[in-house]
User: Fold this.
Amino acid sequence: MVQKSRPPAAAKEPQRRGEPKRRGEPKRRGEPKRRGRPRAYEPEIALGKALDLFRKQGFAATSLDDLSAATGMNRPSLYGAFGDKRELYIKSYQRYREDARASMVEIFRQEMPVRQRLERIYAAALNIYLSGETGPRGCFTVVTAASEAVSDPEIRAMVLEGLADLDKAFASCFRRAKEKGELPDSADPAVLAQLASATIHTIAIRSRARVPRKELEEIVKGAIDVMVGANP
Assistant:
């Protein structure tokens, strides 16, 4: 009996370059792995997350892994967007100063009695210092940047500039109050400005230590009474 021969198996057509691999085909050796789509992010939102973390933990205690988790960005993306950890810290501090200035600039500019102006400035400061999802964070300048200023000239220059700007803004307030007769002729706007700034720093530190707002407001009231005189 003659056995019928089977027709030869059809040869597999080689996959052309650029064509997608057919389902079920084994991966060929040397074929590059497909990368997932890079995570989209908003730089300003990511910077805000980094700012929150630095305010809470400081520079040294914040790792790149912490920043990556907080921002949702991997290390290469962080480096590409913001530079190294120090650069990201400086950008965060700049953002903090801009936000703080924006929250108070109108209070300094508007015309109002000096006592009312000071009350509004300190209330705005307390709103900043006592904010935070996990508790009060205080002032970036006083709590964390001042520590880094010891060994970093660039951060030190930023801190000193911020302190000087605050002194100048307060001095301008007291100078106008003196011109309007709200303060005696013996009042020294520069000295009063330093006292006003020192009060800002005091409530910043105490806010970080979770002193209740009511106690901080009593400190503010006493400081204002010293600077412009107690209410009759």
